[in-house]
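Practice record 12: protein with zinc ion.
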Amino acid sequence: MNFIKRSVMLSVSLVLSAAANSAMSAAANSAENSAKNTAAISTENSAKSAVEGSAWSEFVKVADYIEIKADRVGGSEQEKQTAEWIASEWKKAGYDVTMQPFSYKRRSKTYNSQNLSIDIKGQSDKLLVVAAHYDSVGVKSGSQGLIDNGSGVAALLSLANLLSDGTTLPYTVRLIAFGAEERGLQGSVAYVNSNDTSNMIGMINLDTIIGGDKLYVHSAHSKPYRCDYIKETNYVSGTELREGIRTVSKQLYPDTPHLLHQEYKGYPEGETGAWSDHSPFACSGVTTAYIEATNFALKGKRGNDGYSQVADKAYWDCFDEKNLTSCNRDDEKAWGEIWHTKFDKKSALFPVMKDHLKTQQQQNVKVLLEFVKQANNWVK
Ligand SMILES: [Zn+2]
């Protein structure tokens, strides 16, 4: 982070001195104008590369960290250590971190986990939540949880760093890292049951935001989720947050914007199920959007439901490229899935898709950063 800030300052000062010199020596209007234009473009480019640099360096940092904390099962010692590590990263960026301990029961055993959050002050006290779970399914599965959900955590670290310079925000941005998502959304449920959600104007859930073939953004299902575990239920499924993110993504990345998935059985276009941390918020009256990297064109185990993430045949036992499914559906085990498998770790993913991960992580962070700066255009 320091390196990035330094390099921005350095290039801005070089540009400024270049502009001053050229104005002095030539004193011609055209020279001055072209210097101004060059200055504007260079400043814009260096801001862009600062965002891209942060997006990737934070991801690599998380990837290295979770190689040694791969077993971050909700309620475990490694999960707790990971929470403390995220908190220390946020503190380094200058924030006060709020820890929310909670416990949950599973097969009559009690587990202790924790959520953590920071607030980045905006012009309004209304809260725009951006959240990601930091636990993993555990090494028994072979997974270290790099894309699920090291990618979401890394985006939270980047946003904290990039917004620590006093950027003007219309709403206060609250970044939350949830524990125990893989154990049945325990952290996000505990969060909405013990925090006031009436001041929240939106919640953006980041869960596995890279690694799949394409980037998507979903809204909550128009048919209400089961919400009986929420103290005060007020289900909403508005699409304004999803559409705002999509619009910003289309402006910044016209060739590869965040997509709506096509309609599939039980799921209208762009609408998702209750399986991640957005769901307790939708139940509590908060409009949600959910960013996810996968590939809904693939016909997986249960159809085109987005659970199969990649068309690369390395992730299938037998891939039928023409029909985008397994050539042996009865015997297929791999199904193009990375999450919760032995593929979800640095040693398996970096050799084959490092550039792809980088491009997607950079796009997600850039879109999120731009979106939170103009969120008042989309959510009130
Ligand atoms: Zn996840």
